[in-house]
Amino acid sequence: MNLYTDVPRLESLPEEFNIVIDIPMNSTSKFEYDEKGGYFKLDRTLYSPLFYPFEYGFIPQTHGEDGDALDAILLATRPTFSGCVVKSRVVGVLKMSDEAGVDHKLICAPVAKLDPRLVHIQDLQDIELHLVKEIELFMADYKKLEPGKYEFVKIEGFGSKEEAKQILIKGAQAYDNK
Q1: Architecture of 17-177 per CATH?
Q2: How far is CA 53 from CA 20, 41, 77, 78, 139, in A?
Q3: Burial class (CB in 10 A: 0-12, 13-18, 19+), 101
C-alpha cells in the first residue's frame, strides 16, 4: 500500500480529509514519506535544539506548489506515530516559502470523534495565542542552523480557513491532473 496514492483523501474534502503523519509531536527528528517508494525515511535530525510542537504530515492525493503532497500541521493533545492516518478538518493556513519555493502549511485539527479536547477549534482565532506563536516560531526557526536553507525561509503570515480550503481544492485538482 502506498500512503500517498492509496489512502483516500475523502469525498467530503475540503470539509474533512485524511492526514498521514510523518512526524509525531515532540519529535526532534524529521521523517519523510517517500511518495514513490512507499516508505518512511529519516530525512535528518533537527539541527536546532527544537522539537515539533504539533503533529506534522501530508494530505494524500494532493499536490502542492512545491511538487509534493500538501503539508499539514495537525493540532493534537497526544502524539501518534509515523504512518498514522488521522481524519481531520482545516482551521487555517500558515503561508510561507523555503528553499523549494511556496510551501504553505495547512493548520488542522482532528474531527471531533478523535479528540474531544479540540472540538472547539474551528478557526485560527480559536487556537490559544501562545500556540499560534509557537507554530510560527518553530516553522521560522527550525532550519536556522542548516547550511543553505534558513536564508530562504519566509513566513508570510496566517490565512483563514476559507483560504486553506481553496488550497486544498487546488491541491486535489493538481493531483488529479498530473
Answers
A1: Alpha-Beta Complex (3.90)
A2: 17, 20, 10, 11, 10
A3: exposed
Closest CA to 114 of 75, 79, 91, 86: 86
C-alpha cell at 145: 542552523
Q: What is the DSSP string of the chain?
A: --TTTTS---TTTTTSEEEEEEE-TT-SEEEEEETTTTEEEEEEE-SSS---SSEEEEETT---TTSSPEEEEE--SS---TT-EEEEEEEEEEEEEETTEE--EEEEEE-TTT-GGGTT--SGGGS-HHHHHHHHHHHHHTTTTSTTTGGG-EEEEEE-HHHHHHHHHHHHHHHHH-
Tell me the per-residue pLDDT of 139-150, one tens digit each, with 9 for 90 and over. 999 999 999 999
**Positions of the chain with pLDDT lower than 70, given as ranges:** none
**In the prediction, which pLDDT does 156 show?**
96
Is residue 124 within 8 A of residue 161, CB to CB? The reply is: yes
Is 0.90 surpassed by the pTM of this model? yes
